[in-house]
């Protein structure tokens, strides 16, 4: 005979619990988890009353007077069991929410910089930003997911890459509402405190913040991104790049060097503006030296007569 036992409430015959050993069932008779009116079976096919099961499960006297147990005690034990189950489920959910925010703390901080612009790094060229409304042949949104084709170079250093292309499909968390919900909950709680104008209303602040975190976790979303890129042999292990995140309707791709940004926006064109050579300066005509006839001391070209030249010298 098998040592595994099952029990059920005959009023709900499909709710079968088990398997358990006989010692567990005897312990549960004291907690009223197993009641005298339940049925017990070895094979889930043949059922006998728990009070008629051999060896005996109930203490002596319990089977003879099953109604000795008061109804309120049975109800209290059932209520305690439900309260424990609910508390355990709530605690597990709170841990999941806390783990979610802790895991995405860095992404949430970057997303906050999108709303508070002075927190952004000025002049950054290590990100590729494409809006869903732009008409870009290499990065675009088709209504259900993003498609991104990065330039033909190493995504880390921007140099030529001789390795194969990598094609990945990633699920990027949408953190806009998880970021905004705690602030909205805090704002509403503060407004409620002012409206009540009572010192007891200050407890609305942590309550609103907690509700904001719970709502933000509940309305979180994900965006699919299909991306192709290359890495050179030196940076094959740099798997953190390219990084992906979203801000509203914009896809933000993190890269390692500004060269990738230039290739993405300007292609393979040389970005250095050539300096045009200045035109050659015209040769400066040097004045010809005045030729003087030998012996006479007079120049060979005609001179301009000055006033008084025709007057006899005194």
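-> sequence recovered:
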């Amino acid at each position: 005979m098998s040592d595994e036992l099952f029990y059920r409430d005959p009023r709900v015959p499909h709710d079968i619990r088990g398997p358990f050993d006989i010692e567990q069932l005897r312990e549960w008779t004291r907690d009223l988890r197993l009641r005298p009116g339940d049925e017990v079976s070895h094979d889930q096919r043949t059922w006998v009353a728990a009070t008629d099961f051999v060896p005996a499960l109930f203490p002596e006297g319990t089977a003879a007077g099953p109604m000795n147990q008061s109804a309120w005690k049975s109800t209290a034990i059932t209520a305690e069991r439900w309260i424990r189950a609910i508390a355990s489920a709530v605690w597990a959910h709170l841990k999941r929410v806390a783990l979610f925010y802790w895991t995405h703390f860095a992404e949430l901080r970057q997303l906050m910089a999108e709303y508070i612009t002075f927190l952004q790094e000025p002049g950054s060229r290590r990100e590729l930003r494409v809006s869903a409304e732009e008409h870009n042949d290499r990065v675009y949104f088709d209504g259900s997911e993003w498609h991104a084709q990065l330039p033909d170079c190493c995504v880390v250093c921007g140099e030529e890459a001789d390795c194969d292309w990598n094609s990945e499909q990633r699920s990027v968390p949408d953190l806009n509402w998880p970021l905004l919900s705690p602030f909205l909950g805090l704002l509403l709680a503060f407004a409620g405190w002012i409206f009540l104008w009572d010192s007891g209303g200050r407890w609305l602040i942590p309550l609103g913040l907690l509700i904001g975190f719970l709502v933000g976790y509940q309305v979180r979303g994900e965006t699919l991104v299909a991306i192709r890129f290359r890495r050179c042999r030196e940076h094959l292990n740099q798997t953190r790049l390219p990084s992906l995140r979203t801000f509203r309707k914009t896809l933000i791709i993190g890269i390692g060097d500004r060269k990738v940004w230039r290739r993405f926006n300007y292609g393979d064109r040389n970005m250095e503006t050539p300096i045009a050579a200045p035109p050659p300066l015209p040769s400066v005509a040097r004045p010809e030296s005045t030729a003087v006839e030998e012996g006479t001391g007079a120049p060979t070209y005609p001179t301009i007569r000055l006033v008084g030249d025709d007057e006899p010298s005194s």
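The radius of gyration is 44 Å.
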